[in-house]
Amino acid sequence: MIRSRVHPAWIVLGALALAMLGGTGLRSVFGVYIKPLEADFGWSRAALSGAAAVSLLVFGAVGPLAGPTQVLEYLGRYTHRVAISNERLVSHTDGVVRFRWRDYADGDRVKIMTLAAEEFIRRFLLHVVPGGFVRIRHFGFLANRTRRAKLARCRALLAQPAPAASAIESVPALMRRLTGIDIERCPVCQQGRLHVTEILTPTSPATRCVPVVDTS
Protein backbone atom coordinates (compact mmCIF):
# COMPACT_ATOMS: atom_id res chain seq x y z
CA MET A 1 0.00 0.00 0.00
CA ILE A 2 1.37 3.40 -0.98
CA ARG A 3 0.95 5.98 1.75
CA SER A 4 0.69 9.58 0.66
CA ARG A 5 1.39 12.56 2.86
CA VAL A 6 0.93 16.21 2.13
CA HIS A 7 4.26 18.02 2.03
CA PRO A 8 4.55 20.78 4.69
CA ALA A 9 5.31 23.30 1.94
CA TRP A 10 1.78 22.89 0.55
CA ILE A 11 0.33 23.58 4.00
CA VAL A 12 2.34 26.80 4.25
CA LEU A 13 1.29 27.88 0.76
CA GLY A 14 -2.35 27.20 1.64
CA ALA A 15 -2.04 29.25 4.81
CA LEU A 16 -0.47 32.10 2.84
CA ALA A 17 -3.27 32.01 0.28
CA LEU A 18 -5.97 32.08 2.96
CA ALA A 19 -4.18 34.89 4.80
CA MET A 20 -3.90 36.98 1.64
CA LEU A 21 -7.58 36.42 0.82
CA GLY A 22 -8.55 37.42 4.34
CA GLY A 23 -6.28 40.44 4.23
CA THR A 24 -7.81 41.46 0.91
CA GLY A 25 -11.29 41.38 2.40
CA LEU A 26 -10.30 43.34 5.48
CA ARG A 27 -8.50 45.94 3.41
CA SER A 28 -11.04 46.28 0.63
CA VAL A 29 -12.46 49.32 2.42
CA PHE A 30 -9.18 51.08 1.69
CA GLY A 31 -10.61 52.22 -1.66
CA VAL A 32 -13.15 54.39 0.16
CA TYR A 33 -10.33 56.52 1.54
CA ILE A 34 -8.41 57.02 -1.71
CA LYS A 35 -10.34 60.12 -2.78
CA PRO A 36 -10.03 61.96 0.58
CA LEU A 37 -6.32 61.12 0.82
CA GLU A 38 -5.74 62.39 -2.70
CA ALA A 39 -7.60 65.62 -1.96
CA ASP A 40 -6.17 66.36 1.49
CA PHE A 41 -2.56 65.22 1.13
CA GLY A 42 -2.01 65.39 -2.62
CA TRP A 43 -0.83 61.77 -2.77
CA SER A 44 -1.09 60.04 -6.12
CA ARG A 45 -3.26 56.99 -6.63
CA ALA A 46 -0.16 54.94 -7.55
CA ALA A 47 1.48 55.77 -4.21
CA LEU A 48 -1.67 54.89 -2.30
CA SER A 49 -2.07 51.63 -4.20
CA GLY A 50 1.56 50.76 -3.48
CA ALA A 51 1.05 51.45 0.23
CA ALA A 52 -2.02 49.23 0.25
CA ALA A 53 -0.08 46.44 -1.50
CA VAL A 54 2.75 46.63 1.04
CA SER A 55 0.21 46.60 3.87
CA LEU A 56 -1.44 43.53 2.42
CA LEU A 57 1.87 41.72 1.96
CA VAL A 58 3.26 42.50 5.41
CA PHE A 59 0.14 42.18 7.53
CA GLY A 60 -2.04 39.94 5.39
CA ALA A 61 0.47 37.26 4.44
CA VAL A 62 3.13 37.48 7.13
CA GLY A 63 0.93 38.21 10.14
CA PRO A 64 -0.52 34.71 10.65
CA LEU A 65 2.98 33.18 10.49
CA ALA A 66 4.23 34.97 13.63
CA GLY A 67 6.21 37.62 11.79
CA PRO A 68 8.68 38.16 8.95
CA THR A 69 11.53 36.48 10.82
CA GLN A 70 9.81 33.09 10.72
CA VAL A 71 8.86 33.55 7.06
CA LEU A 72 12.44 34.38 6.05
CA GLU A 73 13.77 31.49 8.12
CA TYR A 74 11.44 29.08 6.33
CA LEU A 75 12.14 30.43 2.84
CA GLY A 76 15.88 30.54 3.57
CA ARG A 77 15.93 26.76 3.79
CA TYR A 78 15.09 26.61 0.09
CA THR A 79 16.88 29.69 -1.25
CA HIS A 80 20.19 29.85 0.61
CA ARG A 81 21.10 26.24 1.25
CA VAL A 82 22.41 23.44 -0.93
CA ALA A 83 20.42 20.34 -1.80
CA ILE A 84 22.34 18.18 0.70
CA SER A 85 24.75 19.16 3.46
CA ASN A 86 28.08 17.50 4.13
CA GLU A 87 26.84 16.20 7.49
CA ARG A 88 24.36 13.93 5.70
CA LEU A 89 27.02 12.23 3.57
CA VAL A 90 28.10 8.92 5.12
CA SER A 91 30.56 7.40 2.66
CA HIS A 92 31.72 7.26 -0.95
CA THR A 93 33.45 4.01 -1.85
CA ASP A 94 33.63 1.91 -5.01
CA GLY A 95 31.44 4.32 -6.97
CA VAL A 96 28.64 4.16 -4.39
CA VAL A 97 27.40 7.06 -2.26
CA ARG A 98 25.64 6.52 1.06
CA PHE A 99 23.84 9.37 2.80
CA ARG A 100 21.22 10.00 5.47
CA TRP A 101 17.68 10.97 4.67
CA ARG A 102 14.52 11.49 6.71
CA ASP A 103 11.51 9.33 5.91
CA TYR A 104 8.52 11.49 6.81
CA ALA A 105 6.12 8.68 5.92
CA ASP A 106 7.73 6.42 8.55
CA GLY A 107 7.57 8.63 11.63
CA ASP A 108 10.38 10.99 10.56
CA ARG A 109 12.93 8.20 10.95
CA VAL A 110 16.46 8.86 9.68
CA LYS A 111 17.59 6.19 7.23
CA ILE A 112 20.59 5.46 5.02
CA MET A 113 20.16 5.52 1.24
CA THR A 114 22.66 3.96 -1.16
CA LEU A 115 22.98 5.27 -4.71
CA ALA A 116 25.44 4.89 -7.54
CA ALA A 117 27.67 7.94 -7.84
CA GLU A 118 26.23 8.82 -11.25
CA GLU A 119 22.65 8.68 -9.95
CA PHE A 120 23.59 10.73 -6.88
CA ILE A 121 25.15 13.43 -9.06
CA ARG A 122 22.13 13.37 -11.38
CA ARG A 123 19.74 13.97 -8.48
CA PHE A 124 21.96 16.68 -7.04
CA LEU A 125 22.13 18.55 -10.35
CA LEU A 126 18.33 18.64 -10.49
CA HIS A 127 18.57 21.35 -7.81
CA VAL A 128 20.97 23.52 -9.82
CA VAL A 129 19.27 26.59 -11.26
CA PRO A 130 19.62 26.75 -15.07
CA GLY A 131 21.65 29.52 -16.65
CA GLY A 132 19.84 32.85 -16.68
CA PHE A 133 17.60 31.97 -13.73
CA VAL A 134 17.97 33.13 -10.13
CA ARG A 135 16.35 31.90 -6.94
CA ILE A 136 15.46 35.40 -5.74
CA ARG A 137 14.70 38.25 -8.11
CA HIS A 138 14.21 41.76 -6.74
CA PHE A 139 12.11 44.41 -8.43
CA GLY A 140 11.00 47.96 -7.82
CA PHE A 141 13.27 50.04 -5.62
CA LEU A 142 15.18 46.85 -4.70
CA ALA A 143 16.13 46.02 -8.30
CA ASN A 144 19.87 45.47 -8.56
CA ARG A 145 20.47 48.09 -11.24
CA THR A 146 18.94 51.04 -9.34
CA ARG A 147 18.88 49.81 -5.74
CA ARG A 148 21.51 52.18 -4.34
CA ALA A 149 20.03 55.34 -5.87
CA LYS A 150 16.42 54.47 -5.08
CA LEU A 151 17.13 53.46 -1.50
CA ALA A 152 18.91 56.77 -0.99
CA ARG A 153 15.85 58.52 -2.46
CA CYS A 154 13.52 56.61 -0.12
CA ARG A 155 15.60 57.58 2.91
CA ALA A 156 15.60 61.21 1.80
CA LEU A 157 11.81 61.24 1.41
CA LEU A 158 11.35 59.58 4.80
CA ALA A 159 14.02 61.79 6.45
CA GLN A 160 15.90 58.71 7.61
CA PRO A 161 19.69 58.54 7.99
CA ALA A 162 21.72 56.06 6.02
CA PRO A 163 22.52 52.87 7.96
CA ALA A 164 25.94 52.62 9.49
CA ALA A 165 28.36 50.45 7.55
CA SER A 166 28.59 47.08 9.25
CA ALA A 167 31.77 45.05 9.46
CA ILE A 168 31.98 42.19 6.96
CA GLU A 169 31.64 38.88 8.79
CA SER A 170 34.31 36.32 7.95
CA VAL A 171 33.36 32.93 6.55
CA PRO A 172 34.55 31.00 9.65
CA ALA A 173 32.58 33.33 11.93
CA LEU A 174 29.51 33.01 9.73
CA MET A 175 29.70 29.20 9.81
CA ARG A 176 30.10 29.17 13.59
CA ARG A 177 27.08 31.44 14.01
CA LEU A 178 24.81 29.55 11.61
CA THR A 179 25.85 25.94 12.15
CA GLY A 180 28.03 25.90 15.26
CA ILE A 181 30.81 24.25 13.22
CA ASP A 182 34.36 25.57 13.42
CA ILE A 183 35.73 25.05 9.90
CA GLU A 184 39.21 26.15 11.00
CA ARG A 185 39.55 23.25 13.43
CA CYS A 186 41.30 20.09 12.28
CA PRO A 187 38.62 17.46 11.53
CA VAL A 188 41.03 14.62 12.52
CA CYS A 189 42.52 15.57 15.88
CA GLN A 190 39.93 18.25 16.74
CA GLN A 191 42.74 20.24 18.37
CA GLY A 192 44.91 21.84 15.69
CA ARG A 193 43.98 24.87 13.62
CA LEU A 194 43.87 24.95 9.83
CA HIS A 195 45.71 27.76 8.05
CA VAL A 196 45.48 28.94 4.45
CA THR A 197 48.77 28.26 2.67
CA GLU A 198 47.76 29.03 -0.90
CA ILE A 199 44.78 30.36 -2.83
CA LEU A 200 44.29 28.84 -6.27
CA THR A 201 42.99 31.36 -8.78
CA PRO A 202 40.51 30.08 -11.37
CA THR A 203 41.86 29.59 -14.85
CA SER A 204 39.85 29.53 -18.03
CA PRO A 205 40.13 26.33 -20.08
CA ALA A 206 42.32 26.50 -23.14
CA THR A 207 40.35 27.39 -26.22
CA ARG A 208 40.48 24.83 -28.99
CA CYS A 209 41.48 26.12 -32.37
CA VAL A 210 38.84 25.43 -34.99
CA PRO A 211 40.30 24.84 -38.45
CA VAL A 212 39.06 27.21 -41.11
CA VAL A 213 37.80 25.38 -44.17
CA ASP A 214 37.80 27.19 -47.49
CA THR A 215 34.43 26.41 -49.09
CA SER A 216 34.85 28.75 -52.07
Task: Sum this structure up briefly.
By secondary structure, this protein is mostly helical.
Q: What features would you describe in this structure?
A:
The chain is mainly α. Among the domains are: 76 residues, no CATH class; 42 residues, no CATH class. Helix content is 40%, strand content 10%. It is built from 7 helices and 3 strands. It has a 3-stranded antiparallel sheet. Strand 2 and strand 3 form a beta hairpin. Helix 1 packs across helix 3. The protein is extended.
Give the helices and strands, then pairings:
Layout: H1 8-26, H2 34-41, H3 45-61, H4 68-79, E1 89-93, E2 96-103, E3 109-116, H5 117-125, H6 147-158, H7 171-179
Antiparallel strand pairs: 1-2, 2-3
Could you describe the largest sheet, including whether it forms a barrel?
Answer: 3 strands, antiparallel
Radius of gyration: 26 Å
Helix content: 25-40%
**Which assembly state applies to the chains in this document?**
single chain
Q: Which parts are unreliable, with pLDDT below 50 for 5 consecutive residues or more?
A: none
Number of strands: 3
Number of helices: 7
Distance from N terminus to C terminus (CA atoms, Å) equals 69 Å
Anisotropy-based shape: extended
Strand order of the largest sheet: 1-2-3
- Strand content range: 5-15%
Order of helices and strands: HHHHEEEHHH
Structural classification: mainly alpha
What's the average pLDDT? Answer: 76
